[in-house]
Specification:
The chain is built from 13 helices and 22 strands. By secondary structure, it is α+β, with helices and mostly antiparallel strands. Strands 13, 14, 16, 17, 18, 19, 20, 21 and 22 form a 9-stranded mixed sheet that branches. It has a 5-stranded mixed sheet with strand order 6-10-9-8-7, with helices on one face.
Length: 566
């Protein structure tokens, strides 16, 4: 195959279609990686994998454009000028990057609640019944993925082009500008700052299995929901067939049409109940894997009152919600997590895929019910490990996940004190634990240390959660100081000695956090010894991530307390 390079009147280099096709086949893996990392992380790994392959496979022009000359931006003479045989891959890379950057763009009058127009177009490949995702990497890959998810699409693209593809800066700027990026210089500058201390490490991580969308793992979709949707599809098909027969029989009748049948409200019989035996066989670790537990799961009257209060709270109901959480009625497919009694209340916990709702009503007459909404989408092994069942008399009870094998209570303000075992009932409810004190002196901060079962992991995983006053406790992590004062290290569980010492200095700050916090991390940036043996001061960055996305970051300095009489 011969590749020609000619200059067009508009100053752009021409590329033959054969060269573009050869470049796509030769660099397919790198092009898919570029599209996968440039696409918005909010799509989820399954949709990002399929969309990345679709963008690359649609990079070549259609039938009408095949007769036109393919062109790449004109290049300045110099050592970075592309060779003729490299113009085909460069043209395909520009097409893929342009499509990935434009994926989230919306027209000016496009409704904000609707997905962008490109997300609504059907695109191959299509996968039914399976979920695709790259192989899981280590802590370094996860930390890099989290860092990239907080950047804009053009910065992510600049990072991949300069690190994974090892393109020179001038070529990266030209490629971003040709693909429609608004500020190529700023994108490249931010991307360079992201991994300035460890360039070689970033290159290695980007080529790992965590970001390889061509070597993927497969898992089945939710089989229980698929079976329910299959039955619902057959029911809808039967209704459509009956309606068609009725319309055919009535012919062109001019009388008033009967009202269209509407889907009724969710009832207790419609609730999804996951069997307890299914939790050990699933690969999912979120609230959809929770079984239905509690002594009143069969009480349809209680469940009916909970669903009715969710749909239309009666007068006197105390309703709370975390920021960014909808209070709309329950959809079909709502899952029952728990129904039982705790501390003088009947409690019902429900989950609809993106929200968790707690309904409470007093067992004794004269009280008013309460309804609490919390956003819980994209939960995982740690953030879906427990829910708050009740909070009374200065104590709190948790409902633990089915993959939790043990629990201990730890006081963050006493890092040297041993952890106390916590009893968990057969339904997964813990004994009462001391709740964080209301505004006042900070003398204690009891947290719950959970341990996963060996049924899901070969080595038990221990982590900390704490009550912040809402329905979902927050996950606590710790990031040690940079190794050698250069590259940052990934967060880890706050169960070690260094983490306990750091959290002992920061625990009282948790009382000022709002509800709706997903996780809190303490990163010890640096420390230095004070003069005259005054101890050691530590600079820490405390980051609170919220379920709705934006969180807050604070930088704190901790100094040793002065001695008595000093």
């Amino acid at each position: 195959m011969v590749t020609s390079q000619r200059r067009s009147p508009d100053g752009r280099d021409r590329v033959t279609l054969d060269a573009a096709e050869a470049g796509l086949v030769e660099h397919y893996t790198g092009l898919v990686r570029l599209a996968y990392l440039t696409l918005p992380p909010s799509l989820g790994r399954h949709r990002r994998v399929l969309t990345a392959h679709g963008l690359v496979q649609r990079a070549l022009p259609g039938f009408r454009l095949r007769k036109a000359a393919l062109r790449v931006p004109a290049q300045r003479p110099g050592p970075e000028r592309l060779e003729p045989e490299r113009l085909g891959p460069a043209w395909v890379r520009e097409r893929v990057l342009r499509a990935a950057l434009a994926y989230e763009r919306r027209p000016r009058m496009w409704p904000g609640r609707l997905p962008p127009p490109r997300a609504l177009r059907p695109m191959l490949p299509v996968v039914w019944g399976l979920r695709l995702f790259p192989r899981a990497g280590g802590r370094e890959e996860i930390a890099l993925g989290q860092a990239l998810s907080g950047l804009s699409a053009d910065v992510r693209a600049a990072f991949v082009l300069s690190r994974a593809d090892e393109l020179p800066d001038a070529q990266v700027r030209a490629l971003l500008g040709a693909a429609g990026a608004g500020h190529p210089d700023r994108a490249l500058r931010v991307a360079r700052q992201l991994d300035a201390p460890a360039v070689s490490a970033a290159q290695t991580l980007l080529r790992s299995a965590e970001f390889d969308a061509c070597s993927v793992q497969t898992r089945p979709t939710d089989l229980l929901r698929r079976r329910q949707r299959f039955r619902l599809g057959w029911a809808v098909t039967a209704m459509v067939a009956v309606g068609a027969v009725v319309l055919t029989a009535t012919g062109s009748s001019t009388g008033p049409r009967p009202p269209r049948p509407a889907v009724g409200p969710v009832t207790a019989a419609d609730l999804v109940r996951t069997p307890r035996t299914e939790g050990a066989d699933t690969a999912r670790f979120d609230f959809t894997a929770w079984p239905s537990r509690g002594g009143r799961t069969g009480d349809r009257n209680l469940l009916g009152r909970a669903l009715a209060a969710w749909s239309r709270p009666p007068r006197g109901t105390h309703v709370t919600r975390t920021p960014g959480t909808s209070t709309g009625p329950p959809p079909h497919g709502t899952q029952l997590l728990y129904a039982g009694e705790a501390d003088g209340d009947a409690v019902v916990l429900l989950h609809d895929g993106s929200r968790t709702v707690r309904y409470r009503e007093p067992l004794s007459p004269g009280g008013h019910p309460a309804l609490d909404f919390a956003r819980t989408d994209s939960s995982d092994l740690t953030t879906a490990a427990a829910l708050t069942v009740s909070r009374a008399h200065g104590a709190v009870r948790y409902l633990t996940a089915p993959w939790i094998a043990g629990a201990q209570a730890r006081d963050l303000l006493r890092p040297g004190a041993p952890a106390r075992p916590v009893r968990i009932s057969a339904d997964g409810v813990t004994e009462p634990l001391r709740a964080p004190a209301e505004p006042g002196p900070c003398a204690s901060r009891v947290t719950l240390q959970l341990r996963t079962s060996t049924r899901i992991t070969d080595h038990p995983h221990a982590f900390l959660i704490t009550d912040l006053g809402g329905l979902v406790p927050a996950h606590l992590t710790y990031t040690p100081p940079p190794d050698g004062g250069t590259s940052p290290r990934p967060p880890r569980e706050a169960t070690g000695a260094a983490a306990s010492a750091s959290w002992a200095r920061t625990a009282c700050w948790l009382a000022g956090l709002p509800d709706g916090v997903r996780a809190v991390d303490v990163w010890d940036l640096t420390g230095q010894a004070l003069p005259k043996g005054g101890g050691r001061e530590v600079w820490s960055c405390v980051r609170a991530d919220a379920w709705r996305g934006p969180g807050e970051v604070n930088v704190r300095i901790s100094c040793p307390r002065p001695a008595e009489g000093g």
